[in-house]
Every structure is written in C-alpha cells, then in structure tokens.
Amino acid sequence: MRIIAGLAFDLVPFASYALQHMRWTFALVVAAACSGGAGEKHPTKPVPPPLPGNDAKMELPAIPANIQVTTSAPTDATAPDKKYPILDVMKAETQREMEAFAKTSDPAYYLAYQLVEQRVVSLEAEGGAMVTDQDDVARNLDVDVRVGSPQLDNTHPLADDTNGLNAPLTRRGDVPFGEDKAALSHALWLETDRRYHEAVSALGYVKQDQQTLQKAKKADPDFSHEPTETHIEAQGKLEFDKAQWVDRLKRCSAKALKGAATRGTCGVVFQLNTSYFVNSEGSVIQTSWTNAQLSVSVGVKADDGMNL
Q: What pTM was estimated for this model as a whole?
C-alpha cells in the first residue's frame, strides 16, 4: 500500500526535475547548432539542476524486478485422508436421484453437483477512517441436470432463440452449513427437483424446434462422456493480520486524500474458497484455494463540477 501511495503522490518532484532537465537539454542543442567556425570555443557543459531535496519522501521498499511463477501438476497436493464428509452425502444423493430419474418418462442421463463454500473478508477505509468491516460465509450449490441424450438434450440452443431464453438458468441454491446429512440431502433434492423440471420443459422446446426446422443441420453432440476423476485437496486456511491491515488501510486512505482529491479509499478483500464436485459418472473432486485483492481509489472534481 505504501508502494501505491508513494508512487501516486511522490513522483511530482521528479516530474518537475524531468521538465527542467528537458529544457536544459534543448538549450544545449540549440547552442551547439548556432555555434560559429572551427576556432570558436564551445560553451562549457552546464551543471544540471540538483535532485529534489528532503521534501520528496518516497517511503518505498525494494521493488522486485520480476515475479517468480511456479507451476504444478494437476495431481499435486492430493490428500485422500482430507476428504470432507459432504462429498459422501453428495455422492449418495446423486445415486439416489439417478435411480429415481430412471423411472420417469423423461429420465435424466447425467447429474452433477458443485457446492462452493466461501468465506469473504472485506475491509475498507476512506480518508483515514474504517468504513467497512465484513466477514461473511456462504454455501452455494449448482446443479447440472441433462435430459434427453448426449446427442440432443435440454441444453441444445434453439434456432431462433437469439436471446438465449431457453438456455439453462445460472441460479445457485443455498445449502446449510454443518454436516447434518438429512439437512444437506433435503437441500440437494429440492434444487435437483427444480432443475429437473426446468430441463424437461427446455427439452420440449428443443424437440419442437427440431421438428419445425425445414432442414435440420447435423450438429455436434450436446455432451461428451469423460473418464472418472478423483482428486482431494486439503481445505485451505485464510490467514492474515487484521489489525495490521486495518492500520495499513487507514494510512493508505489518509495519504490518498491529498491535494485536489475529494475522496481517497483503500480496500482489501480476502477469500477462502472450497469447491466440492460430484457427478453421476463417478467423479469426486475437492479443491481449495485462497486469494486476495487490494484496491486504491481516488476521486476528484472536474472544473464543471463532475465527480471523477
């Protein structure tokens, strides 16, 4: 943060020095071009203006010239003993649902659950004072139900549906926290039932669209079966010094609110994400990762009064 604030507000003296240096260079070139014959002495090289004094406080630590990047194989960090119990609940519910679908007039040939558990910490300061301090958690469920066949199913686009009105909805369902098997199974069943009826309705439009086409084009299959994958990662940990970041954001936003600035805001967001995936083909995947985002925003007012 000091790097950002320092770069934003301490380069002004250097810009002034650069302008003076450009003027001195231009004057030197003009003097050389206007000099007389071979016997005429050239003027001595003038001394450039001194560097900015103590009024330029950079407060910048050493900045690395490059960023080291590492790669890892997809199978790295596998920890089968770290499997979370919710995966067993999701797998059991997948098998039960597929058996129930097989008895319907429009059976589903594929079912997948992806449950994403998130913890999001948001801290924000404005003008030297904290304005946001939130620590939220959520569990969201995405269900993919495919009815029909891999060649033609409910996700097939319609010929005249330019707005994608028949496309699968991107709604996410809420799942309760904890390891209560009955509560988790009920939440999975409820969202699966909604998605299944939506899929059956969409497949009806797809079949009607195929019948009304004068010349059906040979299209690629809507789905491809893939090999079963199993990968378990240990759940990540979200570790940060909150008191240190609060102090850092206050100082950052106070430094941003200088000069012509009418608003100076500094914020940081920390996230812990854990994804659980199970499908009817037998794949079971658990991944976990953390990420952080730092933002600095400065507002000014234009001559006409518009806020920028």
A: 0.69
